[in-house]
């Protein structure tokens, strides 16, 4: 595959969080290893690399406690870079986890004043996101959880979160913004247990909201693997429900702390299937990367280039998979049994129910059918290794 085919274009719709590029390599056991770069330099650098968009927390670009004048100056500077380069703001979100005021939750704090302060902060960030043209606004509940179960009732906490999201949906409608909310699940960290830990739990919660049509899901590879689940399946559940509004791709060793490794660095086959899902089902949102450059790096740009290049390579592998005759022949064989029965249960009728009850099946014969999954998996492995 010629290297020029891997150059990113705006049509790829790649986006990075400003916070990813600003990461200084600090961890719980060591101090920063590189200098922080400004939000403007992050956005300019992404634009120079043909990146479609950027994502931000409010305090990535507006310092905490900044005056209205300072805020407006920052917004003008960012809008100028956007106008000069064509890069878009694809997603906004609010930092409701860093300041000590959120030490026991934001929307789920036991203190109603903290919950109102959180809602106020989010309203201001929604205004900011709207000014920058973002149409997706993400909620990641980094402090929405507990270490001490006696401290709060989870049903009450869900109610506090529901009330706040209902209020904010109404705010978006009242302001006339073209914006949808997207919730990002995570099982733990920084709290011992976080509320709404998986795609399934978020899907169930969304249906209890006053405006479920305005709310979707932003799944992240690492968060899913922290729960010991399969990103391919979790992304698919959100997609099947029509709720996949945004994605965060990265890498993660299962059942560990949130590592935020580069996409594809840990499990290429898993990354391939995630990319294949998005491509085959014509996902139209941005391809967001939410990871950190390794602590050994002096800057973030090799990380940015690598992330986009990996996805482009996998994109080409998906094309080859879909055109690979041995793979497709084998899939037709696997899915070719009893095709006359397909769709039988798609619609219920009394007649169909009776017909099904009257059918005769031979379980032994059905069980004897060969399914060549070893060969199929090997073909995929060889495709990824470049043998076929």
Describe the structure.
The chain is α/β, with parallel strands linked by helices. The protein has 2 domains: 9-322, Divalent-metal-dependent TIM barrel enzymes (TIM Barrel, Alpha-Beta Barrel), CATH 3.20.20; 325-385. The protein has 15 helices and 10 strands. It has helices at 18-22, 39-48, 58-61, 68-85, 112-132, 154-175, 199-206, 221-226, 231-240, 268-280, 301-323, 325-334, 350-358, 363-367, 373-385; strands spanning 14-17, 53-57, 88-93, 136-140, 145-146, 180-184, 193-194, 215-217, 247-249, 287-289. α2 (39-48) runs parallel beside α4 (68-85), α9 packs parallel to α10 (268-280) and α10 packs across α11. It is globular.
Number of strands: 10
CATH class wording of the largest domain: Alpha Beta
Order of neighbouring strands in the sheet with most strands: 8-6-4-3-2-1-10-9
- How many domains? The number is 2
Low-confidence stretches: none
CATH superfamily of the largest domain: Divalent-metal-dependent TIM barrel enzymes
Structural class: alpha/beta
The helix count comes to 15
Q: Report the CATH topology name of the largest domain.
A: TIM Barrel
Which radius of gyration do the C-alpha atoms yield? 23 Å
Query: What spatial form do the alpha-carbon principal axes imply?
Result: globular
Task: Give the CATH architecture of the largest domain.
Answer: Alpha-Beta Barrel
In percent terms, what proportion of residues is strand?
5-15%
Q: Main sheet?
A: 8 strands, parallel
**Helical fraction:** 40-55%
Mean pLDDT: 97
Order of helices and strands: EHHEHHEHEEHEEHEHHEHEHHHHH
Spatial gap, N to C terminus:
13 Å
């Amino acid at each position: 595959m010629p290297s020029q085919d891997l150059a990113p274009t705006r049509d790829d719709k790649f986006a990075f969080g400003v916070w990813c590029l600003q990461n200084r390599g600090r961890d719980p056991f060591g101090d920063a290893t590189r200098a922080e770069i400004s939000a403007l330099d992050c956005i300019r650098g992404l634009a120079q690399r043909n990146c479609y968009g950027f994502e931000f927390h409010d305090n990535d670009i507006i310092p905490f406690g900044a005056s209205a004048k300072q805020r407006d100056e920052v917004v003008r500077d960012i809008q100028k870079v956007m106008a000069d380069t064509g890069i878009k703001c694809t997603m906004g979100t609010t930092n409701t986890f860093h300041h000590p005021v959120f030490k026991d939750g934001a929307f789920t704090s036991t203190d109603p004043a903290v919950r109102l302060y959180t809602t106020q902060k989010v309203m201001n960030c929604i205004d900011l996101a709207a000014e920058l043209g973002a149409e997706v606004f993400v909620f990641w509940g980094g402090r929405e959880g507990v270490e001490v179960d006696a401290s709060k009732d989870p049903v009450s906490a869900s109610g506090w979160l529901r009330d706040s999201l209902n209020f904010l949906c109404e705010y978006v409608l009242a302001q006339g913004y073209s914006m949808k909310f997207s919730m990002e699940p995570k099982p733990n960290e920084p709290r011992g247990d976080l509320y709404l830990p998986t795609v399934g739990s978020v899907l169930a919660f969304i249906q209890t909201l006053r405006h479920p049509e305005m709310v979707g899901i932003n799944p992240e590879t690492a968060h899913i693997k922290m729960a010991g689940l399969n990103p391919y399946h979790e992304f698919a559940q959100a997609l099947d429900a029509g709720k996949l509004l945004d994605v965060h791709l990265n890498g993660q060793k299962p059942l560990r702390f949130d590592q935020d490794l580069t996409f594809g660095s840990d499990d290429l086959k898993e990354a391939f299937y995630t990319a294949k899902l998005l491509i085959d089902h014509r996902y139209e949102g941005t391809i967001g990367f939410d990871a950190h450059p390794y602590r050994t790096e002096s800057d973030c740009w090799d990380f940015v280039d690598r992330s986009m290049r990996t996805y482009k390579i996998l994109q080409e592998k998906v094309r080859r998979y879909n055109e690979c005759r041995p793979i497709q022949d084998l899939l037709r064989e696997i899915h070719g049994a009893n095709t006359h029965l397909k769709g039988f249960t798609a619609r219920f009728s009394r007649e169909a129910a009776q017909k099904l009850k009257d059918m005769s099946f031979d379980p032994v014969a059905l069980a004897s059918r060969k399914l060549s999954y070893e060969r199929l998996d090997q073909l995929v492995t060889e495709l990824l290794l470049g043998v076929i």
